[in-house]
């Protein structure tokens, strides 16, 4: 059973690996729900807003809390970013906004810099030039603490990286208990709520190798969410999964979007980008070659590089 089937919110997604038909009423209902909820599971966004200020990693003298001074700014703004590995310039003068409560899909050929962009976005990579603003605050300021930024910007990778000797619940509660000093009781309550959220409460005592790949990835997502991030980065989170397991993870991502989570999702799953994302960004030659609504990008791409990329996808039967 998929996570979506448990909640009933986006049960049509994943019926065939993330594809769904979006009807007008579905779209209206979705918007209404997003307006109403507009926050991640367990009240995460509002709680984060209360705690994200001094803990945001942004020096307090810069102007108080993240949430207070970021009004009107996109949650994430990447401005003229440059990143090179030696002589290999991967990102050049790249600018991109991720507005609050939106799901932005990053697409592009292998090697186009999607993972690099995500890793720069939560300071896992050193940025050479340009700036990254989180709620209006420049997190590339050298005074900003990367570890603290990463408590605000969660990331999930293709590989689940769960500790095999620990139960699912222990995997999820490890960081809150060890890093953030949360009591076991409180961490486990939060952890169980998050497992409930991803449809895996009944697996709390299981070890990761007793779970399917899709379930393990959902645990990894729960682990990232339990830190109550403001922004979630997803890097090809279905790439390592058997085809029949892809849908349940995409269902979960679609649900998070419905809940109002702000997400930047690097993906080769064109059906997800087309059906679930609010905006699609096509990377090529280290820059944003083209961006727009899924309809604009998939039905009327104007940049020849986007056209060529989508032609290859179509020819490969992946769209
Ligand atoms: N740690 C690193 N050291 C050196 N070069 C790197 C490193 N990480 C990435 N690169 C290079 O940066 C470029 C972009 O890689 P990146 O992984 O960001 O691409 P991608 O779009 O995520 O590709 P894929 O779709 O295959 O995941 C590639 O040329 C890659 O070889
Ligand atoms: Mg990648």
Characterization of the model:
- With 319 residues, this protein is α/β, with parallel strands linked by helices.
- The protein has one domain: Rossmann fold.
- Helices cover 39% and strands 19% of the residues.
- It is built from 13 helices and 10 strands.
- The strands form 2 sheets. Strands 6-7-8-3-9-10 form a 6-stranded mixed sheet, with helices on both faces. Strands 2-1-4-5 form a 4-stranded antiparallel sheet, covered by helices on one side.
- Helix 7 packs parallel to helix 9 and helix 9 packs parallel to helix 10.
- The N terminus is likely disordered.
At the fourth level of CATH, the homologous superfamily is P-loop containing nucleotide triphosphate hydrolases
Q: How do the strands of the widest beta sheet line up side by side?
A: 6-7-8-3-9-10
- Arithmetic mean of pLDDT: 82
Give the beta-strand count: 10
Hetero groups in this structure are: adenosine-5'-triphosphate, magnesium ion
CATH topology title: Rossmann fold
Domain unit count: 1
Output the number of helix runs: 13
Structural class: alpha/beta
Query: Which CATH top level class fits?
Result: Alpha Beta
Which runs of at least 5 residues are low in confidence (pLDDT < 50)?
1-69
CATH architectural name:
3-Layer(aba) Sandwich
Gross morphology: globular
Give the CA-CA distance, first to last residue. Answer: 25 Å
